[in-house]
Design a protein that fits this description.
The chain is of the alpha+beta class. The protein has 22 helices and five strands. Strands 1, 2, 3, 4 and 5 form a five-stranded antiparallel sheet that branches. Helix 8 runs antiparallel to helix 12. About 4% of the residues have low confidence.
């Protein structure tokens, strides 16, 4: 649990740093999505601390809190409070701009939620040192909370595989081919793999089989340690290949972190014995010094009152686990497994959304990307998204219909690789906000000044046998700069 806690803390820290350059554009009222737009279009049960103020300064303060609690989680200081605060802050960031929300974000906030029911600070933490625990009493832990978080990991893959029951995955075996043709996500290695059609055909069936069958192995009671290591190795290898083939942000790292939580007792006993062999006698001396330092210099914060007694917390965890199972079943067949509106609000309020439809049930067979064109007072046209200034003049139409050489890199600059796709499906108000922000940003910092902005959505359909259809363009908005 300690290793998992440290990795989760690092992930929150890294995600917060990645968010920093975009606080004004993506989270403030002068950015692409005002608080009014969110409140009008969202469920009243979706809450976010970020909606308390629309200023960039307030978002920056929440960013600092995110960093603070991420560091506290890493070192295991006031671990429960740090986990609770991190979960609330992560949920707030995700609810503030749903256009940025993806499966990795979804899994991260769920892992934090279920971590509230397991003692993440029990081992290798400041909390354990302050309690005088200089050695590990047991490398295993069992509770309703541990069952819940294991089941959550299982749900991700099992229900993903059920969504994949379709022609591309189980009949034609063309799913991986279409996935690697999404230039907004594919990396150079993924592009190279398109030269091996038989491998891609086999990989489609293999991915489906891994996600459908392998997760069940973690529940086998005999030879559990060896089987668990096999399952963990299989999925971490799977996500490693996924991560080097497709640019999908932190998704693969978050999933791999989840699997590391399931490392068996024998692994930690071996590592513990190895540590004791080389650090025998030294560790306890240093731990006592650290304990004295902490008790002397670390400020004492308020004692966080327990939310529930242990039995009540276990009962609550069990009820929520059953509810999450129902959410997953409802996502598979809403008519057969319906959820009453009287309890449906819990999903939104606690961030228990369960939509595991990665590349399923129907694969996207079209590349989407957005281009923002600014017109200067001299009649020239400028691409506002690309690095550098590209004069377009009368060649604007030909330029629009020319696909960028590295579309994945272009879209990464629009916040973690996915935002460009969402520009094509945004409503009018977010597009107007984006255009106004682009005018202000460009005219404040760059020359020549622009008098208007046009936002285009470009689409290229993927065909079989490495062929593509002609690029189609659609003008989404023309906006005059103030």
């Amino acid at each position: 649990m300690a290793f998992f806690r440290i990795l989760i803390g690092i992930l929150i820290f890294v995600e917060s740093i990645m968010r920093l350059p975009h606080l004004e554009l993506l989270y403030s009222d002068i950015g692409v999505l005002s608080r009014k737009s969110i409140i009008e279009s969202s469920s009243p049960w979706i809450v976010s601390l970020n909606l308390s103020s629309g200023t960039t300064l307030f978002q920056f303060i929440l960013f600092l809190f995110s960093l603070y609690f991420a560091i506290s989680l890493i070192i295991g200081y006031k671990t429960f409070l740090s986990t609770l605060a991190s979960w609330i802050l992560i949920l707030s960031w995700h609810n503030r701009n749903p256009f940025l929300f993806h499966s990795g974000d979804q899994l991260l906030q769920l892992l934090l939620f279920w971590s509230l029911f397991i003692p993440l600070g029990k081992f290798f933490s400041i909390d354990s040192i302050r309690q005088g625990k200089s050695s590990v009493e047991s490398y295993s832990y069992f509770s309703v909370g541990s069952i819940a978080i294991i089941c959550q990991i299982f749900f991700v893959y099992f229900f993903t595989s059920l969504h994949k029951i379709g022609p591309e995955w189980v009949e034609r075996g063309s799913a991986v081919y279409y996935a690697l043709n999404l230039d907004t996500f594919v990396n150079p290695l993924g592009k190279w793999l398109l030269n091996f059609p038989l491998l891609l055909h086999f990989s489609s069936y293999l991915v489906f089989a891994i996600e459908l069958f392998i997760p069940f192995l973690i529940f086998i009671p005999f030879f559990n340690d060896r089987i668990r290591l096999f399952v963990i190795f299989t999925f971490i290898s799977f996500h490693f290949m996924l991560g080097i083939g497709l640019s999908i942000g932190l998704f693969s790292i978050i999933c791999s972190t989840a699997w590391l939580l399931l490392l068996p007792k024998s692994t930690w006993e071996y590592l513990g014995n190895l540590r004791n062999k080389h650090l025998n006698g030294v560790t306890s001396i240093h731990l006592n010094k650290i304990k004295n330092y902490i008790n002397k210099f670390i400020f004492q914060t308020f004692n966080f009152l327990p939310l529930l007694r242990k039995v009540a917390a276990s009962m609550l965890c069990g009820v929520l686990l059953a509810f999450v199972l129902m959410i997953n079943l409802n996502d598979i067949n809403s008519s057969k497994f319906s959820i009453s509106p009287s309890i449906g609000w819990i999903k939104s309020f606690l961030g228990l959304k369960q939509e595991w439809k990665m590349f399923s049930p129907y694969l996207i067979k079209e590349d989407f990307w957005a281009i923002m064109i600014g017109e200067t007072h001299n009649g020239e046209f400028m691409d506002l998204e690309q690095e550098g200034i590209i004069p377009l003049k009368v060649q604007k139409n030909r330029y629009l219909l020319t696909k960028p050489k590295n579309l994945c890199k272009v879209c990464k600059e629009q916040y973690l690789g996915s935002y460009s796709n969402y520009i094509c499906i945004m409503g009018d108000r977010p597009l107007i906000n984006l255009a106004e922000h682009s005018c202000l940003e460009w005219n404040s910092n760059k020359n020549p000044k622009i008098k208007s902005v046009q936002i285009f959505c470009l689409k290229e359909k993927t065909l079989p046998n490495n062929k593509t259809a002609p690029i189609e363009k659609k003008l989404l908005l023309t906006h005059k700069c103030k």
